[in-house]
């Protein structure tokens, strides 16, 4: 590929990386105009993370070249130090920031370092002054002495970005890997504004996301990968959302429309004056056939409510009934026995077994079904796993692969498949589509609907109010652990949900 290098901040030529026979990145070339936001898009497993890891020098490329300014580097020789020297700065989803340290300390550690006096003593006043300059420069509402953990999640991300930009001076390329995952909409907007400002000041940004509204809000250019290859490069402003979905998925995807006329079935799950940890008292009744959303700002108790209804968080007072019968939820075992399925928010810590095979990961909740007369029917277990992988369109080479070999979004689908296969009576899902591509997201919605039409109830906690508005029959809104409002289907918009979450006083424009 020939390119006018001077106009481009980065030129990538013929990047390749395979894992065994799997061509994760298969001959990708592109040139990025300087001072623009470039969204790197593609379905789960399309090669985005692998490509970024190659740029960062943490995944060794098989082939390819990278040109930044007047430097050309063979990708197979890339190391983190070379990437940093070339001006590539990365802010990963798992940001290495420290909530219990101050903003100034966070900016110094892993950033420009602490200013030292002769003898090695830290010059704290100078460190604070430097932090104040950085906060002012990037327009971050925070104080150097404030604990990072006291800031909202968007501002914490902004500090991580500012820190990355301090290393090695001005210019370079900022790579943001799904920076908005699990941020509520208002926080997303704050962060996107900050990203836009960086670009307006000349910063070149690569931005990985699955949330298409963010692409339209902030990106000048979109690079689309499918099966490790570049399928298209487009200016988002020149296409519709439907076109973009089609480019990502490879085919058109219909929007989900909840059935307004569906008759509600009998009460399946009833909570009365339920108190558990930060939640309560909560009264809640879920009827067969309903998908109910749980909205609320960070710390409102969304996740805790779901945990209490599964038995992860001990119920302190109040009662829960399942199909009219009292239910004691002292441990997750009680929840599982009662036919409750729970997909936690934090897959990596709470649910996944990264080194176990996909077969094991999708069958842990039904393992006893495969034991007959003291023997594990491993063939049947594998066959079922294969069927689930294809039903959930999980992209994997083999059911024997460890979960860790899958892309993030595909790992999430494995978690959902694990629970939905049990035909649960109650489905509790915490941020079920974080990191999941638009096509797979649609499939997860359909599978939730399928479970609900078969008589289950679903309770979905999400920070994405658009997601809730799109798939739920009604949404309850939590604040301070209590239900402060409910939005019925007929009035369900993301704007309405957000206003309630903020206490209605704040008008939100979406
Ligand atoms: N360490 C690894 N070992 C084996 N295969 C891997 C490894 N890392 C990635 N892959 C495979 O490479 C392909 C690309 O994965 P990658 O993580 O780059 O996708 P992605 O576009 O970032 O997906 P997502 O949106 O789900 O994060 C997938 O088929 C994945 O299973």
Automatic annotation (TrEMBL):
This is Sugar ABC transporter ATP-binding protein. Keywords: ATP-binding, Nucleotide-binding, Repeat, Transport. It comes from Nocardioides panacihumi. Coiled coil: none annotated. Residues 10-252, 256-505 form the ABC transporter domain. It comes from the Bacteria. One of its GO terms (molecular function) is ATP binding. SUPFAM superfamilies: P-loop containing nucleoside triphosphate hydrolases.
């Amino acid at each position: 590929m020939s390119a006018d290098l001077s106009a481009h901040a980065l030129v990538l030529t013929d990047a390749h990386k395979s894992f065994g026979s799997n061509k994760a990145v298969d001959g990708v070339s592109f040139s990025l105009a300087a001072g623009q936001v470039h969204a790197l898009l593609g379905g789960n497993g399309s090669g985005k993370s692998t490509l970024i890891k190659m740029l960062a020098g943490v995944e060794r490329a098989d082939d390819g070249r990278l040109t930044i300014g007047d430097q050309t580097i063979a990708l197979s020789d890339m190391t983190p130090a070379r990437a940093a020297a070339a001006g590539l700065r990365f802010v990963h989803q798992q940001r290495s920031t420290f909530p219990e340290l101050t903003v100034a300390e966070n900016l110094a550690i892993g950033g420009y370092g602490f200013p030292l006096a002769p003898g090695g003593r830290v010059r704290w006043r100078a460190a604070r002054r430097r932090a104040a300059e950085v906060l002012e420069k990037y327009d971050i509402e925070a104080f150097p002495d404030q604990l990072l953990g006291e800031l909202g999640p968007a501002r914490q991300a902004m500090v991580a970005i500012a820190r990355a930009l301090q290393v090695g001076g001005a210019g370079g390329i900022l790579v943001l890997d799904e920076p908005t995952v699990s941020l509520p909409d208002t926080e997303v907007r704050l962060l996107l504004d900050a990203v836009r400002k960086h670009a307006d000041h000349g910063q070149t940004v690569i931005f990985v996301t699955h949330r298409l509204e963010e692409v339209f809000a902030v990106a000048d250019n979109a690079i689309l990968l499918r099966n490790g290859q570049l399928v298209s490069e487009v200016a988002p402003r020149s296409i519709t959302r439907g076109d973009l979905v089609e480019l990502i998925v490879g085919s058109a995807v219909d929007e989900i429309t909840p059935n307004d006329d569906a008759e509600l079935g009998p009460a399946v799950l009833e909570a009365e004056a339920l108190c558990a940890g930060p939640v309560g008292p909560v009264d809640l009744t879920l009827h067969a056939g309903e998908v109910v959303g749980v909205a609320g700002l960070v710390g409102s108790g969304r996740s805790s409510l779901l945990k209490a209804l599964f038995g992860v968080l001990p119920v302190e007072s109040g009662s829960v009934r399942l199909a009219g019968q009292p239910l004691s939820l002292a441990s997750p075992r009680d929840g599982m026995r009662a036919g409750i399925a729970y997909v936690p928010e934090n897959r990596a810590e709470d649910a996944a077994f990264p080194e176990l095979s996909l077969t094991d990961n999708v069958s842990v909740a039904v393992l006893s079904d495969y034991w007959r007369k003291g023997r594990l029917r491993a063939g049947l277990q594998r066959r079922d796993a294969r069927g689930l992988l294809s039903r959930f369109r999980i992209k994997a080479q083999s059911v024997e692969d460890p979960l860790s070999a899958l892309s993030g979004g595909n790992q999430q689908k494995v978690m959902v498949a694990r629970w939905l296969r049990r035909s649960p009576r109650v489905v509790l899902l915490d941020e079920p589509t974080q990191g999941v591509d638009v096509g797979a997201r649609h499939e997860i919605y359909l599978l939730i609907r399928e479970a609900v039409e078969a008589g289950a109830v679903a309770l979905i906690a999400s920070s994405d109010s658009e997601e809730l508005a799109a798939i739920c029959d009604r949404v309850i809104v939590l604040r301070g652990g209590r239900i402060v409002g409910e939005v019925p289907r007929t009035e369900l918009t993301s704007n309405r949900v957000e206003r309630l979450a903020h206490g209605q006083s704040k008008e939100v424009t979406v």
